[in-house]
Amino acid sequence: MNSTPPNPPTPESSDAPADLPGAVTAEQFDTIDAILDDLRTRYDETPQWEFCEGFMAALICCRRAIPQAEYLDVLLAVGEGGDDLPVVIQEGEAEPEAGGSFADEAQRAQFLQIWDQRWAEVLMALDTPIESLEDETAYHPEVMDVRGAMAELTDAERAELPDEALPAFGQVWALGFMYVVEAWPDEWAEPSDKKAAKWHDVALQSVVALTEDDEGEPELSPFSEDGPPSMSTDRLNAFADAVWSVYDLREIWRGIGPRVEALRRADVPGRNDPCYCGSGKKYKKCHGA
Known about the structure:
Blueprint: H1 26-40, H2 49-60, H3 68-76, H4 105-126, H5 146-151, H6 155-159, H7 171-183, H8 194-210, H9 233-256
Helix pairs in contact: 1-4, 2-7, 8-9
């Protein structure tokens, strides 16, 4: 099993090397954030991109290759088979409250283009052997330092914002990952092999740990050496453990392969039973000969 590196990398995927094939740009992340904001005006349960990022990582290292038509509605509640296209509201009618929708087919296509591009980027990273999470080809989850951003605001700016709990570093990503585990529990049942099962459990527990709050003393900034401290050292190490766990889970299921349905043999008559063909002969004298 992989171990935590002494110096976890900056996990912002927009900082990926420019020569990485298919790397999603900062501008594209801004675009997909804007699309999610727009979706949220029609369905307020639409998640942030960080949640989507964790959701995607779990899908990629899931045992079964879950098709997009199956998971997209679970993630965005946009319906299937074109149900996510705009609904014409007649004058005087109330707009439906439940379910989200893309503004139009162009918005849907733009979202899926960036989604598929990021999927290919993450898949390539997880399938490329690395020695350290500091490697240029390593998977760098696109996560936000919300507490750090809040710390940089003035007192007046903070006073204008809602007084609510801020997520810890990597927490929303981990919640998105575990949402997939909970939505498709059969695909996350532990392997029958004892060694693989233990490896599987430790990996999942690393992600679960990241869904908890960071209660340690803020000691550092994850993206800047001179930024305001917003997280504990333990939290950064826990984040690195969770990223390694994604590699581990991907490797476990690649080695075991998808679940194979057991073949059930049709009932066969006993040797002295009447043959199923209706000939009147015993099975051993007819089709069982």
